[in-house]
Amino acid sequence: MPLPLGRKYDIIYADPPWKYVWSGSHSREPGRRWFRAMSVPYASMSERELKALPVAELSKPDSLLFMWSTSQHLGQAVRVMESWGWRYKAVFQNWIKTTSTGKDASMPGYYSKSQSEFLLVGVRGRPSKLLPRGCTRPRQLLRAARSRHSTKPREAMETIERCFLGTDRIELFARSRRDGWDAWGDQLPE
């Protein structure tokens, strides 16, 4: 599905469908390792496929890119962000996943238990003029309950809306629609 290239945006928010590959420690052949891909309920994309998307064509000259990444994909996220035309600046928010009861959630990870995801921010041009006067910088730590697989906390988008009033915004790889945002993704309801 091609990107909707007819409009330009100040804010691009992306939750790329990262391809997960986990290595195992056993193999049927001595001295060889086997690899398996993690099963996800959506079509995933390789770094090369993500880099090939013409995301820069969606942006105004002065814009921000907010991109989600797991710890396993941080290096890829920065490379993809840069290939799209944005300079990585910081972790905008670090989502600490909790259960519905408020306890820390814990997911299997490769080197350690996975309990957080990162919303990175990249800049293109001079986007400082997008920040309205009087906006208090948001807290980097976001504690929020996780829900179904890969669904991000609504508080992240609410923070962007609060800090960047009156901006044109699009969500890439969206699974639902949100007022005030355009959306693109193969899992959007018709």
Structure description:
- The protein has about 190 residues and is of the alpha/beta class.
- The chain has a single domain (about 10-185), classed as 3-Layer(aba) Sandwich (Rossmann fold), CATH 3.40.50.
- About 15% of the residues lie in helices and about 30% in strands.
- The chain contains three helices and nine strands; from the N terminus they run βββαβαβββαββ.
- The strands form two sheets. The chain has a seven-stranded mixed β-sheet with strand order 7-5-6-4-1-8-9.
What order do the helices and strands come in, and which of them pair?
Elements: E1 9-14, E2 21-23, E3 35-37, H1 47-51, E4 59-69, H2 74-84, E5 87-98, E6 116-124, E7 141-145, H3 154-163, E8 169-172, E9 182-184
Parallel strand pairs: 1-4, 1-8, 5-7, 8-9
Antiparallel strand pairs: 2-3, 4-6, 5-6
CATH architecture designation: 3-Layer(aba) Sandwich
Question: Stretches where pLDDT falls below 50 for ≥5 residues?
Answer: 23-28, 33-38
- Report how far apart the termini are: 14 Å
Radius of gyration (Å): 18 Å
CATH class: Alpha Beta
What would you call the structural class? alpha/beta
The oligomeric state is: single chain
What's the overall geometry? globular
Total number of strands: 9
* CATH topology call: Rossmann fold
Q: Output mean pLDDT.
A: 83
Q: How large is the share of residues in beta strands? A: 25-35%
Q: Order of strands across the biggest sheet?
A: 7-5-6-4-1-8-9
- Total separate domains: 1
* Order of H and E elements: EEEHEHEEEHEE
Tell me the helix content: 10-25%
Distinct helical segment count = 3
Give the biggest sheet: 7 strands, mixed
